Every structure is written in structure tokens, then in C-alpha cells.
């Protein structure tokens, strides 16, 4: 809203005097490897990919995880070109490059064996993409399916 005032779209911020409650709940929580390893043993292949990309690839979930396509994986260079739908509107943002870390490589290899010829996306779950890619989610006009 401050930007809208600065850009003279509105005269004043209608939320300026709105009070909100402070929360002691942490928004971001570090999940130890042991917990992820236990989850990986119980997860189906789709969820193994989601967990692996978010924990071992450091991808934002759901936006980056569900936007990653097989064409974004450079197997020879062992790197990923990660789409950034949440920040693509910022200058110089939209895609970042990241190595495929050793913990993630076997997960991606196995997922490619299972889904590589069946899905354009690394996470072969169009229902998750449809549910997350909405006006209430991370709607990405350039990467939407």
C-alpha cells in the first residue's frame, strides 16, 4: 500500500491505522535432516521429489518446486535453472541457477526414471500445481499451466 501511495495510485494507505496482533509463531522453521530422512522413507515418489527439492535443493515450495521442469535440469553440468514465480516481477529476477547437491541427485535420478517421459514437470502432480497456482497462491502468468 505504501507503494500505491508513492505511485499516486491512491491518496492514502487505508490500512495505516489497522492494528494486528504480534505472533510468537516462527514463520520459517529449519527441519533437521533426520526428520526429512524419516519422511523420505515413508513418502511416495512424488512427495520424495517435493521434500528433496525443498530440503536439499533449497527451493521455495510450492512455487519453485511445482514450476521446475525437466528442461530446467542440466544433468551434465549438475545444475538447475530454478524458476522464481514469486519474485519474477522484480528486475533481474525470475530464474536462478543452483547446483544439484549430492543429497538431491539420486532423488532426481529416480524421479526422472519414473516420471521423465510422462511429465513435463519434475513434480509429476498437475493437481498440486492447479491448486497452488491460483490468485490466492503464487499465480505465475509466465509459468502457469
Question: Quick one: how many beta strands?
Answer: 3
- Strands of the widest sheet, in order across it, are 1-2-3
Number of domains: 1
Please give the radius of gyration in angstroms.
Answer: 18 Å
What structural class do the secondary elements suggest? Answer: mainly alpha
Note the beta-strand portion: 5-15%
Mean pLDDT: 83
| SSE string, helices as H and strands as E | HHHHEEEHH
The biggest beta sheet is recorded as: 3 strands, antiparallel
Q: Helix count, per DSSP?
A: 6
Describe the structure.
The protein contains six helices and three strands. It is mainly alpha-helical and 145 residues long. The protein has one domain (31-132). It has a three-stranded antiparallel β-sheet. A hairpin with a 4-residue loop joins β1 (73-74) and β2. The two termini are 30 Å apart.
Please render the helix and strand layout as text.
Layout: H1 2-6, H2 33-42, H3 45-55, H4 63-67, E1 73-74, E2 79-83, E3 95-99, H5 105-115, H6 126-132
Antiparallel strand pairs: 1-2, 2-3
Please sum up the structure shown:
The protein has 145 residues and is mainly alpha-helical.
Keywords:
145 residues, mainly alpha, 3-stranded antiparallel beta sheet, 8% strand, disordered C terminus
Amino acid at each position: 500500500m505504501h507503494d500505491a501511495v508513492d505511485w499516486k495510485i491512491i491518496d492514502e494507505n487505508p490500512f495505516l491505522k489497522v492494528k494486528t496482533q504480534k505472533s510468537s509463531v516462527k514463520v520459517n522453521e529449519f527441519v533437521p535432516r533426520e526428520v526429512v530422512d524419516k519422511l523420505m522413507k515413508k513418502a511416495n515418489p512424488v512427495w520424495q521429489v517435493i521434500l528433496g527439492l525443498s530440503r536439499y535443493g533449497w527451493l521455495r515450495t510450492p512455487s519453485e518446486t511445482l514450476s521446475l521442469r525437466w528442461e530446467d535440469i542440466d544433468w551434465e553440468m549438475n545444475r538447475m535453472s530454478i524458476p522464481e514465480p514469486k519474485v519474477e516481477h522484480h528486475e533481474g529476477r525470475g530464474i536462478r541457477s543452483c547446483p544439484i547437491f549430492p543429497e538431491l541427485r539420486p532423488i532426481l535420478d529416480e524421479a526422472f526414471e519414473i516420471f521423465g517421459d510422462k511429465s513435463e514437470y519434475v513434480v509429476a502432480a498437475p493437481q498440486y500445481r492447479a491448486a497452488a497456482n491460483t490468485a490466492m497462491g503464487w499465480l505465475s502468468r509466465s509459468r502457469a499451466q
